[in-house]
Write a structure and sequence with these properties.
Layout (H helix, E strand, L loop, with lengths): L10 E4 L3 E9 L2 E7 L9 H15 L3 H11 L18
Antiparallel strand pairs: 1-2, 2-3
């Protein structure tokens, strides 16, 4: 791991096409700006970890179990007002 000290306004280049600029430092928080080609995926590490965990959890559920749960939560058809005797209401 390369460790570097930078100040607000300083940049780091990764290869020829990726630039990381330190935009702001406030206490223990740092705001970065990243310039990279569209082909480079940039995402926060915790988002990737959560996504990978969700995919793993979803794969462990059987299709039969999902169908059973969906059948229980599928909305019922709306009740028609004529069925419950509201057809003779005057307005």
């Amino acid at each position: 791991m390369l460790v570097m000290r930078r100040r607000a306004g300083d940049s780091i280049l990764l290869g020829e096409t990726i630039e990381i600029q330190v935009l702001e430092i406030c206490g223990t928080r740092v705001k970065f700006g990243i310039v990279a080609p569209d082909s480079v995926v940039i995402q926060r590490k915790e988002i990737k970890i959560t996504r990978d965990e969700n995919i793993t959890a979803a794969r462990s559920v059987r299709q039969q179990d999902i169908s059973s749960i969906l059948a229980k939560v599928t909305p019922r058809p709306a009740v028609d007002a004529t069925v419950i005797g509201l057809t003779n209401v005057t307005v």
